[in-house]
Design brief:
This protein is mostly helical. The model has no long low-confidence stretch (mean pLDDT 82). The longest helix is centred in the C-terminal third of the chain and has 18 residues. It contains six helices and no strands.
Length: 124
């Protein structure tokens, strides 16, 4: 079961373009948001790194790269463009990490998204 979940997660990360070897801002911000969400979901640093490609010998990101991404997340989470990217990543990863939960019935999630939209509107 865990292997199937990891495969589904990896496919979702691929679809979002986060596993590419790329340093564009939207990809880097997306990776940082994914690192944070996966870490909060209980994934280890090494397991998170194995979801992403790298130029390294192993072919995956090292756990120290994930730590760096998490630290950068804390610095970047105030930027408007980061918040928008994070919201998109969160929506997709939430669906994969919570397959049994019907997003239509998740009232708290909808309230949180509505509040986030209001805050973004105030910041602009």
């Amino acid at each position: 079961m865990e292997v199937i979940d990891d495969i589904d997660l990896r496919l979702t990360l691929d679809e979002l373009g986060l596993t590419k070897i790329n340093r564009k801002r939207e990809v880097v911000y997306g990776r940082q948001a994914a690192f944070k969400m996966l870490r909060e979901a209980g994934y280890t640093l090494s397991r998170i790194g194995m979801m992403f490609k790298s130029n390294g010998k192993k072919g995956y990101l090292d756990h120290t790269t994930v730590i760096h991404g998490l630290n950068e997340y804390d610095l970047n989470c105030e930027y408007t463009d980061f918040i928008e990217i994070e919201r998109n990543i969160h929506t997709e990863l939430f669906r994969v990490l919570n397959p049994k939960q019907n997003p239509d019935s998740n009232v708290n999630e909808m309230i949180a998204l509505t509040q986030m939209d209001a805050l973004i509107g105030e910041m602009l």
